[in-house]
Design goal:
Blueprint (H helix, E strand, L loop, with lengths): L7 E11 L2 E7 L13 E4 L2 E9 L2 E6 L1 H6 L10 E6 L18 E11 L2 E7 L13 E4 L2 E4 L2 E3 L2 E6 L1 H6 L10 E6 L1 H11 L13 H6 L5
Antiparallel strand pairs: 1-2, 1-6, 2-5, 3-4, 3-6, 4-5, 7-8, 7-13, 8-12, 9-10, 9-13, 11-12
Amino acid sequence: MFTGIIQAIGQVQTLEPRGGDVRLTLSTGKLPLAGLVLGDSVAVNGVCLTAVNLAGGHFAADVSRETLSLTTLGALRPGSRVNLEKALTLATPLGGHLVSGHVDGVGEILERHQDARSWRFRVQAPAGLARYIAQKGSICVDGTSLTVNAVDGAAFELNIVPHTLVETTIGDYQPGTRVNLEVDLIARYLERLILGERAAEPASKGITAAFLAEHGFGR
């Protein structure tokens, strides 16, 4: 588990193809490596990876074909900047929100503009994630815990303060940038709880407009 509070910006050093997947080696910048051992988890742009090698300000992790195809990690190149966070402990302040490091989908930056000292970003999420994104709710974008300012269909808006802009890769975002999205854990589990016994049925028989109306969720 993670908090979504980015601890450092790392940089991709190498991407080594290995039998159809990739071993990723990154420099860790100012990430505190004290206490990090082989097998520990590190979130890289919001993706939970396992450290398989540690050496002098670098770590390596194997990235599966599944992860390469369902996240933006497959588009990384040597020199790419990435957000880094070590897994939380029971002594870690929960400054953001609970983040699993399991990406739900890839979104796209639609626009950015300055608003006083902050920057506002509009992000397009996959249609299937729209029901989990709520105004003033939490969302994780490339591993960063953020508050949703507004929602319009499957698009949502973010207000990024100067500190976050500098301490994460969000300052690099331009229209067209693809980003990893993880929705709030509570929203995902709430959907399953609402399904009740229907949770064991095929997905095609899950939550529908008719199901919500039947259970009193209609307007």
